[in-house]
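G., before I forget:
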Amino acid sequence: MKRFIFCLLFIFAAKTSFANLAYITNEKDNTVSVIDIKKNKVIKTVEVGQRPRGIIMSKDGKLVLICASDDDRVEVREAKTLKLKYYLPSGPDPELFILSPDDETLYIANEDDAMVTVVDMNDKMIIDDIPVGVEPEGMGLTNDGKVLVNTSETTNMAHFIDTSTLDILENVLVDARPRVAMFTPNDKEVWVSAEIGGTVKVINPSTKEVTHTIGFEIPGVNEESIQPVGVRHTNDGKYTFVALGPANRIAVIDQKSKELIKYLLVGQRVWQLAFTPDQKTLLTTNGVSNDVSIIDVEKLKVKKSVKVGRFPWGVVISPES
Amino acid sequence: MRSIYFLYIFLIYFCFGFFILEARELSIKQIEERKKADVERLKEREKRGNKKFSKEITLATKLIFLSMERKTPPVLSNLDPILDDEGFYGVKLAIEDNLTTGRFVGHDYKAEFHRVLLNENLKSEFQKLLNQGNKFFIVDLNEKELKTLFETFNSEEIIIFNVRSKADSLRNENCKKNLLHVPPSYSMLSDALTQYLVKKKWNKWFLVTGPDENDRKYADALKKSAKKFNIKIKKEKVWDFSADLRRTAGKEVPIFTKGEKYDVLVVADEKGEFGEYLTYRTWDPRPIVGTQGLTPKSWHRTHEQWGATQMQNRFRRESGRWMTEVDYHAWTAVRSIGEAITRTSSNDVKDVRKYLLGEKFGLGAYKGVKVSFRSWNGQMRQPILLASPRSMVSVSPQEGYIHPDSELDTLGKDQPESTCKF
């Protein structure tokens, strides 16, 4: 009987022994850096497929999914060890992707192929591909998983897709080179960043109309280097963080009034963002300075930067804290 | 006994778990099955009918791509194939891109390709196209040929995109209201290069110019840039040997470059008749810049930043070769028309032109910042790549060159210096 308890404990321990880890894809190094957020330190660097970009986790935090863009597939790895479990078919050049709330369906933007590929996570098969604009990238999903928004960088549109029929409902023109689409926590707005246009458009998902256009002006920084990419909303509806690329800053915006609160200076060419589960900390990937900035969300201050591999691109943080 | 039983269960659990974790690599058989499944899926989709979101076509636009047949030049390099389809795939790809957007908003695009043959007359062929009522032209012609076009007509009812000529005169004294230029002018290219050389403090130049008219224009632009950025041209020479240098360069070049004190050898040789053979053969060890060595370009195969990788991949998949500058210009021209029509919902020449030259226009063209047109002479403002044969060295404008409106306007003639009057 004692051994039985021992076995149970062993299994239990194996399942809960990780927490507060951030996974960063290094596009030019073909690696993933793992940061222990409490220690602000890289604890591990793991070799992955070619040109890793988008990275997400399953809701239970057990799986890490990585777009290996130049391998034309998605790698599924065990979060704890980052050991490769299996590959998922993805269509050519997967860049960014999103999992349905039940972890059953994966929606992948195929940058080279003007498609959104839909993959069944159980069968590990492609269910369908949806023709969208040229160079699809950003992927946003409502909380119930019913509406998917994909942005296409060269077509300059946000495509609203009904996930039950996989049909396009509507296409909304946004500014040049839309990179990221992100629903607000209450699903009442979707924010779309336009890298070359230099703006963030706020779209009402029910009317499909643009309700706000947010522009940025930073003294001493020329307009052309203000290039919005990553967007993250706090769940309390207070702040929205927008990464401004080569302007090397994060804009903090009042989520309700859409007014600018302040700019936070981070590393060079900041693109993607991720919160810790308690949303007290925000991580940014700074591609050119090859580091990750760690931001204190309550104080709106940059705490530290952590060196990672070459051209850090995507970031995801384990759900447990 | 009981404990062994539990251990047994544990082992089964463990092995089973292990099995789930590790046995996922696909066998050839599995891959074949998936391929079959792909085919099935395709059939299913066809059965469901065309799911492509498309709106009824409300606006259809036809573009003309006009080029000339050219005599094959002598082969100067065994490496680069001589292309007779430059621009074609650029237009094709951009039409596809425009159609993708168009499908969602009800706009249709089509391009017709016209090549004027050696025994045909450009002027009369162009007149025929005008008589057919064509409005949008993408033209792959040199400076002289472009000027002939304007001998026939000068109507504001049409719009012409130059995708080849870099001549400064077309952007200044010979500018036309309905002529837009995608290629950077010689002076934009030379300013882009000079800004970088200033940054490197390579301020003493030895300038070698080839025998062609275009080489002289390139050299003129370089001299103007040198003056603008306070560079000293220590020596200027014209290369007028017409011999094939492949076997004799080792003897000729050292003598040609001997006895001068300079930082860089600046070469203007657009055809590549001798420029390639200067490298490693100068009397003193000096880098080569200009049309060879480190060259300012609007597009280059080493360019991979800002989504350029996707463009390079798409282009190579379509054409089976690397994208050239003319291809890039043609793509950019057709995409500019598409962008203007998408945003204005009009294909009226006046609306399109107004939008293109206006402040709102900005196109993502894989250069990191938006490209747009200078309202005073129709030149596309754009960052310039500084490329060596196998790596991207820098992108101009260089940091620190500031401008009240756009830093891109530190390249080439700015509004106050422009002699263009529409």
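Residues 11-26 of chain B have pLDDT under 50 and may be disordered. Chain B has two domains: 59-184+300-382, 187-296.

More on Monday.
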